[in-house]
Prior knowledge:
This protein is 19% helix and 33% strand. The protein contains 6 helices and 18 strands. It has helices at 60-67, 90-95, 101-110, 133-153, 168-178, 256-267; strands at residues 13-17, 25-31, 34-41, 44-49, 73-84, 87-88, 113-123, 126-127, 159-161, 183-190, 200-205, 209-221, 230-239, 245-251, 308-320, 323-324, 327-328, 333-337. Strands 3, 4, 5, 6, 7, 8 and 9 form a 7-stranded mixed β-sheet that branches. The chain has a 5-stranded antiparallel β-sheet with strand order 14-13-12-15-18.
Amino acid sequence: MVLAFGPPLAPMLARLVRELPRDGLCYEPKWDGFRCLVFRDGDDVELRSRHDRPLGRYFPEVRAALRRLPAPSCVLDGELLVTRDGRHDFAALLERVHPAASRVARLAAETPAYYVAFDLLALGADDLRAEPYQRRRAALVTMLEPVDNAARLDNAAPVTLTPSVEATGVAQEWLGGGLGAGFDGVMAKPTDSVYEPGKRGWWKVKPDRTADCVVAGARVSGRAPDRPAAVSSLLLGLYDNAGALRHVGVSAAFRREQREAMLPVLLAHAVELNAHPWRAGYALEGGSTGRLAGSAGRWTPEMPLDWIPLRPELVCEVAYDRPDGWRFRHPARFRRWRPDRVPESCRIDQLTETVAAGPPDGGQR
């Protein structure tokens, strides 16, 4: 067997938009996993990340499933995912990337991954990248639909086919939460688009989610010779059902003049650490995803005090992409102050997602 081409290959990319594009498009779920290119040539199966890092050793169960595909030689584009406790779990997926072979084997049994294919780039010696999306999709359906249906009957999905629809109404429902948790938006692809490695020829639609948060602390940038001190980030909190103020992330996207103007406003609410809800530390429970940019890590009193404690009186509205549990995965974007909101009304259930198990049935394929 001869594969049409092998790695390295830069995957085709997408531009971020907030509104659903229309006309001449197909829509797919935007999965919240690891982008993964598959190169299969008989028993030789390679998994490569977006940046061409080899992933195959971490996911032996996926490689085994790919060897059972009816096409003995092919190149696929898709996503690696893990489902745990009835929902897609990005933290569990991260845990799968471990250097110890014994741990890889154990996790493959405890939290098995599966592969969702959304594009067919080569079939045998035939390079399909110059074919329009609709033809590539039809070939992918022909190859994978029997495998996908059999897996669903067995309540397993080691290799499955992503839903694809042309109905904008269905895509709009997906954006409104119809896909449940573990999805990151909607992909919009022109039906006649060829596959152009590295080019942003698709759209990823991720509507802003917003939350009203308590500003419980701030970090300040160092004073430069020609610049006054300025706010570098806000530490955000939300109240849980027990009345505790939980650290949920940071907001750090400010214009320079905004950062400078914020500082005196925040300093008016500064308080001694021993009078602050986080005097014993924050994010002490840690997290399986490690030190995320959005959660800003943990802090304990033994560590340097690199933030200014603020009385939990100020409320701001922030926009965010998605939560990991009850934390922002990435830094939130400051929208506006909310003087009309009482801090105690800023509760953690704003971040709740609807749970959905496994891949959705997206209608026509």
